[in-house]
Each structure stands twice: as C-alpha cells, then as structure tokens.
Design goal:
It holds the Pfam family tRNA-synt_1c. The protein is an alpha/beta fold. The chain contains twelve helices and eleven strands. Helix 7 crosses helix 8. The structure holds glutamic acid.
Length: 322
C-alpha cells in the first residue's frame, strides 16, 4: 500500500439486491476516490451469516459493474489487504479479540434479549446503552451461568471528537454514546462494530463514506481503531434517500433495486445523473456520462438533509432524462 494515497471503501451487506440507497453510497464512494486518484476497496460485509446470501453477493458485483462503479481491490480482484469478504476474515477478528482480551478489556455478558429490551433504546432506531450489569461479575458468579455469553468491551469515560465531512464537528462521550458494546455475539458471530473497525484499520482505509444512519456508530469505531494501534480514517456521512412521505428507502421496505430499474429500461448514466442532481452535486437536471459526472460533481455541495426520491421513479426518469 503506497503511503499518502486515499483509500476509500464501499462495504455493503449482501442481504438483498443492490437498492437505490446502496447505489447512492457506492456512487459517492466512487466519486470521492476517483476525483482524488485514490484506490477503491469493495468489501462484502457478510458477517451476519443468517441474513447474508451468496446470491446477493454475486448480484452486487454484477450490478456495480453494470453501473460502471468499478473498484480496485475486492473479493474477485484481490489486492494487498485481502481477503475482502468478512466471512473469510474470522481469523483476523479472533486475533484482534485476543489482543483486547489480553489487555483485560473484554468481559462475558449473560444478559438475555428480554433484559436488554427492558433497558431498551430511548428512541426507536437508536442504539441502547448497556447498563453494565455483567461488568463486575465475579469468576464464581460467571461459573454458575449456563447460557453462552456474548463478549462486551469496557468503554472508558472518554470523549471522542471528530469532524464529519457533512455533519461537521461531533463530540461523543463514550459511556453516553455506546456504553460497553458487544464485540462477539452469543452465537459466536463477530459484531459489526468489531469487524468494521478491524477491517477499516487493517485495510488501510483513509476515508470512510457511508449513510448517515451510521453516524452514531462512528465514535466507538474511532476509539476501537485507535485502541488497536491504528489511525482512524476521515468520515463523511451522507444523507439518506427517503420517499415523499419521508420514509427511508431501504431494501427492507421493498426499496427500488438496480435490477428492477434496469428491467424497466433505465440506463446507468440516467440513474446516476438523477442521484447527482437530487443530491445537489450538480445544478442541472440532465443526463451525463460517468466520465462527465466525475468531472462535474461537487461533493462539497452535499448537505445533511434527507434526499426525497420521486414516486414512480422509472416514469419520472423516462420523462425527464430522455
Ligand atoms: N455494511 C453496512 C451496510 O451495508 C455498512 C457499513 C459501513 O459502511 O460502515 O449498511
């Protein structure tokens, strides 16, 4: 890896077909890196084995290729920081956990889901703050437990300050932001927070660009990356796509997929030009080639406000992007 070169990554989870929200983020990751002459990593975040499917992983590669949003390092192309699929990186996560364990930072948590729900998130969609119930358990108490524990990491009374590319300066006091969080689930799976931090650190990622829904996870990831002895990347959280009622477009709510739009005869330049215009990266509503988009789009124009996507998008696109 050459020092000084921007390294960005697009890190989708293959739990459905690539949807419009993924396209938006992938496009911005691609723009950020290509405008700076950096390297783009494609990382497949399939650490949630139950929800991830090989079919979707394969479809992601095809759909991104169809969009022209090509990457330099990834599961098929390889590269110096691989493997690029999380299910092939378990030994790396295990080594990171051992390092944290040796420093006395991890402890088993026996709390049931019901108990965790009872101390639940203050607002829907927010992470809950763990109350430290299992933190002080003695060895004798632990021996009496019969259920398989998850593993949590002790979070210090520290504040993390960072400057987000869109949301600006953020201060997060860790005990009030994430509390002691899970790094390995009771079913043995590595938690997203651990996997993503280890991967961004070890893959030499210098710039993270992703959806604003992950802004709240950033402080704990920065803390973990530094704890592992690496420099944290620069973060840019981008606005989410919503429908005209303000609901987030996502695959869970039958979000619009790339495949669907392609089947409706929409081409990739139209789709990306539309997103660039809606996202204020371009002043004009017209169709550009990807090469033109790379030249013309201005990432500084991104705002924190959600982006409203037109109803019946395929009709809108055929009318206004002929
Ligand atoms: N895998 C996550 C997702 O698809 C993104 C994680 C990240 O960019 O940090 O939502």
């Amino acid at each position: 890896m050459t020092a000084g070169i921007m390294r960005g990554r697009f890190a989708p989870s293959p739990t459905g077909y690539l949807h419009l929200g993924n396209v938006w983020t992938a496009f911005l990751c691609w723009l950020q890196v290509r405008q700076q002459g950096g390297k783009l990593i494609l990382r497949i975040e399939d650490n949630d084995e139950q929800r991830s499917k090989e079919l979707f992983r394969q479809a992601f590669l095809e759909d991104l290729t169809w969009l022209g949003l090509l990457w330099d390092e990834g599961p098929d192309t390889g590269g110096p920081a691989g493997p690029y699929t999380q299910q092939e990186r378990y030994a790396v996560y295990a080594a990171a956990l051992r390092q944290l364990q040796e420093r006395g930072l991890l402890y088993p948590c026996y709390c049931t889901r019901a108990r965790l729900q009872s101390i639940g998130a203050p607002h829907p969609g927010e992470q809950y703050l763990y109350d430290g119930h299992c933190r002080q358990m003695s060895l004798a108490e632990r021996r009496q437990m019969t259920r398989t524990p998850s593993l949590r990491i002790r979070v210090p009374a520290a504040e993390i300050v960072f400057n987000d590319g869109v949301f600006g300066r953020k201060n997060a006091f860790l005990p009030a932001t994430c509390g002691d969080f899970i790094v390995r689930r009771s079913d043995g799976m590595y938690a997203y927070q651990l996997a993503v931090s280890v991967d961004d650190a070890l893959m030499g990622v210098t710039h993270v660009l992703r959806g604003a829904d992950l802004l709240a996870s950033t402080a704990q990831q920065i803390w973990l990356i530094r704890l592992l002895g690496y420099e944290a990347p620069a973060y840019t959280h981008v606005p989410l796509l919503v429908d005209s009622d303000g609901h987030r477009l996502s695959k869970r709510q039958n979000g619009i997929t790339v495949r669907y739009l392609r089947e409706q005869g929409i081409d990739s330049d139209t789709l990306l030009s539309y997103l660039a215009w809606r996202g204020h990266l371009l002043p004009d509503r017209r169709r550009y080639s990807l090469t033109e988009l790379k030249k013309r789009c201005d990432l500084q124009k991104l705002t924190a406000e959600n982006i409203v996507i037109h109803k019946n998008l395929e009709n809108y696109l055929s009318l206004f992007f002929p």
